[in-house]
Specification:
Pfam families: N_methyl (PF07963), PilW (PF16074). It comes from Kineobactrum salinum. This protein has helices spanning 13-66, 264-267, 330-337; strands at 79-81, 105-109, 127-134, 166-170, 175-179, 197-209, 215-224, 229-239, 241-250, 260-262, 274-284, 298-300, 303-305, 320-328. By secondary structure, the chain is an alpha+beta fold.
Length: 340
């Protein structure tokens, strides 16, 4: 019987090439799946960030606007400034000046990046919104729930006035804007500010700040430890906000009901008739996507923005979302219905 011995041999060139081609196809498929998954993840992450930033920006503006014009029991028009009120560092020009409580709502469009004399870094041709109000954290002469508490005319409940705050001390007839470090008026009955209550005062000026990534920012009335005085300082809130536009709802016949919405031109000179706002924000992602091209047109109230037509101002490879909200101004509405 003859024994056959099989000699080992390697792959032929053709087999080797076929194996390489199949391997490259598998690797290419895996890479394609990875890149598609990464692109999808990046897109979802950017959209989620935009949605979150939009919600936070609207929430912050909404909270401020709902308090606009709130001055305790007094009408903002009936609040005067204490003669001893200290100079406010980097204060804004009228009507945004901190001491002008009566101008509790105002807006302009930034020209050349400037607004109200105190803002030098605004994004050109975006709206700047002024909001003034007091915080709903009143301080009293004594516990209002305790009828037997001693009332000596000095505001001290639940705390004394903070010397690093500005307050509005007001009753139902009038109010006084003063430093917490200054002598407060006697609020016992028979005096000018009888039964007056002290409310911490706030000024907020919202605008789009021209940074590498445009940002929703605000100038706020705040204690400046370095200057040892109250000052208007800048806070950055939400990155990626490229534009802000506002339309105003007017009650022209003082019946407490909206008659029309208008832009800044129509609102100027009629601020006491404004009782609602339409707020538009255009947000962009912080990172660009070379494979994305934004060809949409965004309608921000009366202004249309097409990033692809203006690449010098708007990065066309960034993803965007526009958010819009209508906000009723409760305090102005009450003042209008009450005949101011």
């Amino acid at each position: 019987m003859k024994t056959v011995v099989l000699q080992p041999r390697g792959f032929s060139l053709i087999e080797f090439m076929v194996a390489m081609v199949l391997g490259l196809i598998l690797i290419g498929g895996a890479v394609s799946v990875y890149l598609a998954a990464k692109r999808s993840y990046t897109e979802v992450e950017q959209v989620a960030d935009l949605a979150e930033h939009g919600r936070f920006a609207m929430f912050t503006l909404n909270e401020s606007l709902r308090h606009a014009g709130f001055a305790g029991a007094a009408n903002p028009q009936d609040i005067r400034t204490d003669d001893s009120l200290g100079t406010i560092v980097d204060d804004c020009d009228s009507p945004a000046a901190a001491a002008e409580v009566a101008n509790y709502l105002w807006a302009v469009t930034a020209t050349g990046g400037e607004a109200f004399g105190c803002i030098k870094d605004a994004r050109p041709d975006t709206d700047v919104l002024v909001i003034k109000h007091v915080l709903p954290r009143p301080l009293y002469d004594a516990d209002p729930e305790d009828l037997s508490a001693v009332r000596d005319g000095t505001i001290s409940f639940p705390d004394a006035l903070d010397d690093k705050e500005i307050y509005v001390i007001a009753n139902s007839e009038r109010g006084l804007l003063l430093d917490g470090a200054d002598a407060a008026p006697d609020v016992r009955e028979g005096n000018e500010f009888a039964l007056g209550v002290a409310w911490p005062y706030r000024v907020q000026i919202y605008y789009v700040r021209e940074l590498t990534i445009p940002t929703l920012s605000r100038r706020v009335l705040h204690w400046d430890a370095g200057a040892g005085a109250m000052a208007m300082t800048t806070e950055d809130l939400v990155p990626g906000v490229e534009n802000m536009r506002v339309r105003f709802g007017l009650d022209s016949n003082s019946d407490g009901e909206l008659d029309t919405y208008t832009d800044l031109t129509g609102a100027t000179g009629n601020w006491q008739d404004v009782e609602a706002l339409e707020l538009f924000l255009l947000l962009r992602s912080a990172t660009e996507d070379a494979q994305h091209s934004d060809t949409k047109t965004y309608q921000l109230g009366d202004v249309a923005v097409t990033p692809a037509d203006d690449p010098d101002e708007y990065v066309p490879t960034a993803r965007r979302v526009m958010v819009h909200n209508t906000i009723s101004l409760r305090n102005p509405k009450l003042m209008i219905r009450g005949g101011r």
